[in-house]
């Protein structure tokens, strides 16, 4: 029996013992008679019950509700204590893989659309996510509860809904992101203006309504309607980000991906990352209606067509835009793939692996960093100081963990930098990652640097500003004061002042020599005159 099984068995045995002791030793106390309640009291109690129910839906278990009232008005607390312990034990076992939470709101155009994505939702349920399915126009849906996030993530599969409820409109989505929520949004050719307005907040512009990405040379053989909108995307010609935090190497080397949907153009926002885009010069975005007259040039062409784009806000909330609803449907996840005029075929597309990687990054299952500790002290000491002296030799270290594979592990970066700032950086130094000692079982790595403080006094900030694509941002700042030398701390003689020392000494010696000569030198003319007078 391993350690985990022994711990679980011991915990369950402890619960049984506690239940037996509490059942036999706790005496029941007679409850006070319940007075008659008026209608107003009933209304107040109903409101309070509704509030308690809502709090329980988004917050921790209310321990005060664990006590039970028996039919003879006796209060029994033993069952309540056991219930709290069991709930705490079970909640530990069903923890989601995300670093930010497991509550997901799914917005659909119609409730019947849920069946189209059953396999996609099943994979998320296997990763311990809990779902609330709503239509985008449902007036009961709300992203907030008691001014807090009611959900940790939002999956928006309702691109065609025109009249979003005010609680889930673009402004509400922006507020949700500002509060740290993550959003996965899938679009289609019938994209509504509401979703377009939300995308514009992130400098993303989707093509016009009823347009699709078309490529007459890179479509799947099953696309028999002649429109050639079912594209085959593979990594042989590029077209996918090489950021391993977003897409794994297994996904890039796996089967091609089927894409059917709308294209978009991204702006100049530096936080945006193109996840998938068109690399063929033969692709373009245009309307696919049969009676459509080609009276204008396409909105975007070739490599300017973005298919999947992701953004990480400055508060580390993540938003992903996908131009294809079909990408997540069961029909695409299980469909075989064969590009036109190609003998190579695959029994199953790579859509499943692609959406798995995409949701893992969007829902912060990977690429999440956190600072667990930071320290600074003088060389040869251990305790930090609030005030250092100019030109002191100090040691700065910071511990960083990375969330991956459902647990916190040491971060393996090699480009973490420290800046010593007073208005402007005086020192910028790359921190050295230290080796992890196996016997310590650390879940973080120490990054360290030995440096000498500037020859300038004032209030300095030790700042670690780590921002890399795919990783959550780290901004860690510590403020310290740097004082000048005290009057008795300066060196007695300064090498650069030796010429001045020599000048002062030569002046003194010259003055003494001149004075000695002047004093002891007799005036001979005065002596001769004195002799004549005598």
UniProtKB/TrEMBL annotation:
Domain OST48 middle: 376-521
Pfam families with a match to the protein in the record: OST48_MD, OST48_N
Signal peptide: 1-31
Gene Ontology biological process terms from the UniProt entry: protein N-linked glycosylation via asparagine
Highest taxon, organism lineage: Eukaryota
Keywords per UniProt: Endoplasmic reticulum, Membrane, Signal, Transmembrane, Transmembrane helix
UniProt GO cellular component terms: oligosaccharyltransferase complex
Alphabetical list of InterPro entries matching this protein: DDOST_48_kDa_subunit, OST48_MD, OST48_N
UniProt membrane topology term: Single-pass type I membrane protein
Compartments it resides in: Endoplasmic reticulum membrane; Membrane
Pathway as given in its UniProt record: Protein modification; protein glycosylation
Occurrences of domain OST48 N-terminal (ranges): 103-362
Residues spanning the membrane: 498-520
Described purpose of this protein according to its UniProt entry: Subunit of the oligosaccharyl transferase (OST) complex that catalyzes the initial transfer of a defined glycan (Glc(3)Man(9)GlcNAc(2) in eukaryotes) from the lipid carrier dolichol-pyrophosphate to an asparagine residue within an Asn-X-Ser/Thr consensus motif in nascent polypeptide chains, the first step in protein N-glycosylation. N-glycosylation occurs cotranslationally and the complex associates with the Sec61 complex at the channel-forming translocon complex that mediates protein translocation across the endoplasmic reticulum (ER).
Assembly and interaction partners: Component of the oligosaccharyltransferase (OST) complex.
Entry similarity comment: Belongs to the DDOST 48 kDa subunit family.
Stated name of the protein: Dolichyl-diphosphooligosaccharide--protein glycosyltransferase subunit WBP1
């Amino acid at each position: 029996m391993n350690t985990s099984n022994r711990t679980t068995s011991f915990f369950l045995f402890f619960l049984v013992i506690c239940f037996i002791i509490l059942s036999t030793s706790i005496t029941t106390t007679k409850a006070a008679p319940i007075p008659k309640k008026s209608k107003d009291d009933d209304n107040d109690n109903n409101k309070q019950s509704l509030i308690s129910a809502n709090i329980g839906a988004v917050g921790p278990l209310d321990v005060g509700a664990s006590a039970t009232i028996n039919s003879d008005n006796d209060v029994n607390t033993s069952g309540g204590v056991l219930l709290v312990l069991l709930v705490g034990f079970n909640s530990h076992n069903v923890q989601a893989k995300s670093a930010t939470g497991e509550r997901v709101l799914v917005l659909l155009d119609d409730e019947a659309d849920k069946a189209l994505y059953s396999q996609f939702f099943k994979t998320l349920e296997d990763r311990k996510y809990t779902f609330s399915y709503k239509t985008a126009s449902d007036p009961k849906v709300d992203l907030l509860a008691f001014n807090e996030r009611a959900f940790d993530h939002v999956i928006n599969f309702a691109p065609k809904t025109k009249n979003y409820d005010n609680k889930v409109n673009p402004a509400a989505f922006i507020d949700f992101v500002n509060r740290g929520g993550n959003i996965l949004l899938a679009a289609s050719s019938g994209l509504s203006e509401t979703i377009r307005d939300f995308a514009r907040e992130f400098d993303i512009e989707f093509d016009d309504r009823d347009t699709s990405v078309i490529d007459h040379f890179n479509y799947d053989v099953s696309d028999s309607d002649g429109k050639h909108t079912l594209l085959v995307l593979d990594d042989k010609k590029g077209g996918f980000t090489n950021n391993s935090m977003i897409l794994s190497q297994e996904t890039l080397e796996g089967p091609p991906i089927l894409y059917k949907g709308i294209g978009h153009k991204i702006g100049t926002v530096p936080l945006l990352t193109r996840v998938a885009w068109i690399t063929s010069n033969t692709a373009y975005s245009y309307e696919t209606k049969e009676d459509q007259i080609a009276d204008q040039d396409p909105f975007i062409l070739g490599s300017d067509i973005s298919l999947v784009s992701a953004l990480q806000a400055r508060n580390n909330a993540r938003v992903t835009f996908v131009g294809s609803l079909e990408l997540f449907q069961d029909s695409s996840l299980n469909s075989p793939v064969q590009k036109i005029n190609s003998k190579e075929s695959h029994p199953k597309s790579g859509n499943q692996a692609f959406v798995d990687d995409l949701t893992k990054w969007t829902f912060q299952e990977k690429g999440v960093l956190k600072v667990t500790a930071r320290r600074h002290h003088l060389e040869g000491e251990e305790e930090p100081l609030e005030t250092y002296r100019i030109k002191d030799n100090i040691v700065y270290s910071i511990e960083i963990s990375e969330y991956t594979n459902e647990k916190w592990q040491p971060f393996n970066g090699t480009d973490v930098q420290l800046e010593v700032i007073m208005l402007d950086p005086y020192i910028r130094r790359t921190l050295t990652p230290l080796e992890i000692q196996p016997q310590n079982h650390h879940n973080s790595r120490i990054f360290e640097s030995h440096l000498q403080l500037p020859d300038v006094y004032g209030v300095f900030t030790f700042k670690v500003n780590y921002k890399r694509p795919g990783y959550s941002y780290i901004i860690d700042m510590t403020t310290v004061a740097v004082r000048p030398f005290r009057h008795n701390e300066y060196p007695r003689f300064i090498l650069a002042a030796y010429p001045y020392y020599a000048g002062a000494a030569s002046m003194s010696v010259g003055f003494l020599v001149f004075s000695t000569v002047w004093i002891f030198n007799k005036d001979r003319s005065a002596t001769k005159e004195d002799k004549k007078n005598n």
